[in-house]
């Protein structure tokens, strides 16, 4: 019986032979071997580093990064199944976007001409909904396990076929093998595996459970410290994308007990302070701000007894008063309006190397007229077994919606109608190759192009 080392050596020899005799089939052979026989542990890394063929060494190195092996040789499982996970996309279905529009020919010097593939560094601030709490767990108690690798805006575990996340759409490593093109194979900052925000796996995912918006500024300081202390990051030259998502804990666990400290105005104040700080210390940065979600989404799904018990701890304000659901929904909408007023004020539209864009897809979960009883029920497979956090499928949908918002002009971003994962995935195109900002959205509305060049 072959040992793992025997299988590894055999596979590498087969890949070497294929790369010499039939170069076009090299990637297929790599894929077959890695999926069937090779685990990317320390042993295989040592073997592939001795390979003299530079191209093959790059291929294998990239593949090992795809299936998440860290420096200690720890691997994380990349295949999950179940109704609370996204549908797995088979290999024969190509990546839906033309990578021609993924990365600029040369590094842009204007944030309003920033393509998705121009992003070199990615980070996030937020709470447990960004930390990935319970996303891969089959039990409600699993909410304490933070699956950061599958987080919608910052997870980079596996690839988009297994885990649809914003980083996995940006890096899309698989395409570089066949087409020598990619949005960005060297994206820095995305999380893998599980762990707290202080873990090695967390990278630039600074979110932590139970965080409120008043924690945003301190998280931003930690993020900046990690960015500036990373020798792989050139703060002045590389473009950074940061996603911020707060508000659920403010509304669920604090606002009803201390209305003044956790008012919509204070929510906007904390975010303004955070954004002003990032603008001051981080050049070449685009910030996504996702408004607070309507927290009544957690009671608009079929709930088990354990859900009802846990919910009193996760969202105490939804268990206070005669119709707390209406009050919480109204407060969620007021939070959304407060941050809209800040971002749409133009405060962050005056610089060529920093801007903030509101990505309002969270409003897709709003109850109409702030009355949850009139709202359509939410697909329970989008939520974990504690009925509060996003399942992996929920994270995939969040990534899908965020990506679409980034490629939709301001003022025309999708805010209604909750789709399924992969039902609609937008792509950069010739007329709109850039991430939409307030500034280039105005150009687009006037000319039909983000660059503002009128068609003759």
TrEMBL record:
- Cellular location of this protein? Apical cell membrane
- Keyword Signal part of the UniProt annotation: yes
| Keywords annotated in UniProt | Cell membrane, Glycoprotein, Hydrolase, Lipid metabolism, Membrane, Repeat, Signal, Transmembrane, Transmembrane helix
Could you tell me the membrane topology recorded for this protein? Single-pass type I membrane protein
Stored SUPFAM superfamilies: SGNH hydrolase
Query: InterPro entries, per this entry?
Result: GDSL, Phospholipase_B, PLB1, SGNH_hydro_sf
Domain of life (superkingdom): Eukaryota
Matches recorded under CDD domains: Phospholipase_B_like
Q: Which Pfam families match?
A: Lipase_GDSL
| Keyword Glycoprotein tagged | yes
Q: What GO cellular-component annotations does this UniProt entry give?
A: apical plasma membrane
This enzyme catalyses:
2-(9Z-octadecenoyl)-glycerol + H2O = glycerol + (9Z)-octadecenoate + H(+); 1,3-di-(9Z-octadecenoyl)-glycerol + H2O = 1-(9Z-octadecenoyl)-glycerol + (9Z)-octadecenoate + H(+); 2,3-di-(9Z)-octadecenoyl-sn-glycerol + H2O = 3-(9Z-octadecenoyl)-sn-glycerol + (9Z)-octadecenoate + H(+); 1,3-dihexadecanoyl-2-(9Z-octadecenoyl)glycerol + H2O = 1,3-dihexadecanoylglycerol + (9Z)-octadecenoate + H(+)
What processes in GO biological process is this protein linked to?
Answer: phospholipid metabolic process
What's one GO MF term for it? phospholipase A2 activity
Q: Which family does it belong to?
A: Belongs to the 'GDSL' lipolytic enzyme family. Phospholipase B1 subfamily.
Summary of the function given for this chain in its UniProt record = Calcium-independent membrane-associated phospholipase that catalyzes complete diacylation of phospholipids by hydrolyzing both sn-1 and sn-2 fatty acyl chains attached to the glycerol backbone (phospholipase B activity). Has dual phospholipase and lysophospholipase activities toward diacylphospholipids. Preferentially cleaves sn-2 ester bonds over sn-1 bonds. Acts as a lipase toward glycerolipid substrates. Hydrolyzes fatty acyl chains of diacylglycerols with preference for the sn-2 position and of triacylglycerols with not positional selectivity.
The record's section on PANTHER family has: GH22081P-RELATED, PHOSPHOLIPASE B, PLB1
Identify this protein by name.
Answer: Phospholipase B1, membrane-associated
Q: Which organism is it from?
A: Apis cerana cerana (Oriental honeybee)
């Amino acid at each position: 019986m072959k040992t793992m080392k025997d299988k590894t050596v055999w596979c590498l020899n087969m890949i070497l032979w294929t790369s010499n005799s039939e170069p076009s089939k090299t990637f297929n052979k790599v894929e077959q071997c890695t999926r069937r026989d090779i685990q990317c542990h320390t042993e295989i890394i040592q073997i592939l580093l001795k390979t003299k063929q530079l191209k093959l060494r790059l291929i294998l190195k990239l593949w090992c990064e795809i299936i998440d092996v860290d420096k200690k040789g720890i691997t994380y499982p990349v295949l999950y199944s179940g109704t609370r996970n996204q549908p797995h996309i088979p290999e024969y279905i190509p990546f839906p976007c033309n990578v021609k529009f993924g990365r600029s020919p040369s590094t842009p010097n204007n944030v309003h001409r920033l393509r998705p593939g121009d992003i070199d560094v990615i980070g996030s601030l937020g709470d447990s909904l960004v930390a990935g709490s319970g996303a891969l767990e089959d039990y409600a108690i699993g909410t304490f396990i933070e699956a950061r690798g599958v987080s919608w805006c910052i997870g980079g575990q596996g690839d988009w076929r297994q885990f649809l996340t914003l980083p996995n759409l940006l890096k899309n490593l698989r395409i570089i093998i066949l087409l020598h093109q990619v949005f960005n194979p060297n994206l820095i900052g995305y999380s893998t595996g599980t762990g707290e925000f202080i873990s090695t796996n967390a990278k630039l995912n600074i979110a932590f459970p139970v965080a409120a918006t008043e924690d945003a500024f301190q998280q931003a300081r930690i993020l900046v410290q990690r960015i500036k202390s990373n020798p792989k990051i050139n703060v002045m030259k590389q473009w950074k994308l940061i996603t911020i998502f707060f508000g659920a804990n403010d509304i669920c666990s604090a606002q009803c007990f201390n209305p003044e400290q956790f008012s919509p105005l204070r929510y906007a104040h904390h975010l303004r302070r955070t954004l002003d700080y990032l603008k001051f210390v981080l050049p070449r940065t685009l910030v996504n701000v996702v408004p607070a979600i309507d927290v009544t989404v957690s009671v608009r799904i079929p709930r088990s007894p354990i859900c009802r018990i846990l919910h009193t701890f996760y969202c105490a304000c939804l268990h206070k008063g005669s119709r707390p659901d209406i009050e919480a929904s109204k407060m969620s909408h007021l939070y959304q309006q407060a941050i809209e007023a800040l971002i749409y004020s133009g405060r962050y539209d005056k610089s060529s190397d920093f801007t903030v864009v509101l990505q309002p897809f969270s409003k897709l979960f709003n109850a109409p007229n702030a009355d949850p009883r009139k709202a359509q029920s939410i697909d329970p497979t989008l939520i974990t077994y504690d009925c509060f956090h996003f399942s992996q499928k929920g994270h995939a949908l969040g990534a899908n919606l965020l990506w679409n918002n980034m490629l939709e002009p301001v003022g025309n971003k999708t805010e209604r109608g909750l789709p399924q994962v992969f039902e609609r995935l937008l792509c950069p195109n010739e007329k709109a190759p850039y991430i939409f900002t307030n500034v280039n959205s105005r150009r687009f509305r006037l000319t039909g192009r983000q660059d503002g060049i009128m068609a003759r």
